Amino acid sequence: MQLQARHDGKKYHNAIATAVGPTSGYGTLLKRYLWGKEEREPRQPLGPFRADAVALAAPVPPNALRATWLGHSTTLLEIDGRRFLTDPVWAERVSPSKLVGPKRFFAPPLPLADVPALDAVILSHDHYDHLDEATIRTLARREVPFFCPLGVGAHLRRWGVAPARITELNWWEKAALAPDFTLVATPARHFSGRGLTRNNTLWASWCLLGPQHKVFFGGDSGPFEEGFRQIGTAFGPFDLTMLEIGAADAEWADIHMGPLVALQAHRLLGGGPLLPLHWGTFNLALHAWRAPVQELLAEAGPEVPLLLPAPGQRVDVAAGPLNANWWE
């Protein structure tokens, strides 16, 4: 039986029991936050990084599979003649405030005005580091469709996206972009909320199924063995998997997977190359900012080709593993 999120009439719930808050309590967390010695933010300025806006604006070849990581979970994907943008965030801070909250380590490598024509924007959930109001308001001026989990469409409509351009899906529901290209909202183990709200909207991962290639975009998720196995069985193997590796900690291990669990998920999904997301852009946890990628490199076996481009660096997935080592 396929795993399903539960809605009790007011809130969404994970398919399996999931702890969202710190298991040791907020007092312990505060002590670690205040006294921890980790290098949680770069000591030296990063970048500037520059994407090639002219090259990215060229038509996408019908057999292409390319990715341009723009930071955190924002990625420009070129798949089989189509172009997608995942979880677009151009904000300086991922916070309700423009004055406080996690701040970017580097400027976006591609100005929002230079983002080329898109076939769709794909959203995983409504947390501030994945759904940025100012960015959405800018993209709303374009004639681009948005695909999101249930409930997230209310944010988009409020920010100016025409209702006709919003498709909200539950887990396992499909949307056909064309007869040969399908998007599928698939399970994740996480939570949602902005401000003081929690779980009024659903969270999801996504499968992008083209005529030549299949891509998995994980959004945010904690360990979810059965969920990833079901997704891999239903839609894998994938030509590219994009999974979060940062902001993980034992205190909230149910909702963020970290590098080791990401590698396990990658194998359950039947992944090919792995492009890690959700790291190296904002200080959202207590680990050193480089730690996720360093651990990933140490633990990934030869059977997992890693794609580690610099921000804004376009990757041709067929070219094989890449390590730009930009964080050093």
TrEMBL record:
Gene3D superfamilies: Ribonuclease Z/Hydroxyacylglutathione hydrolase-like (3.60.15.10). Residues 82-279 form the Metallo-beta-lactamase domain. InterPro entries: Metallo-B-lactamas, RibonucZ/Hydroxyglut_hydro. Transmembrane segments: none annotated. This is MBL fold metallo-hydrolase. It comes from Hymenobacter ruricola. The lineage of its organism: Bacteria, Pseudomonadati, Bacteroidota, Cytophagia, Cytophagales.
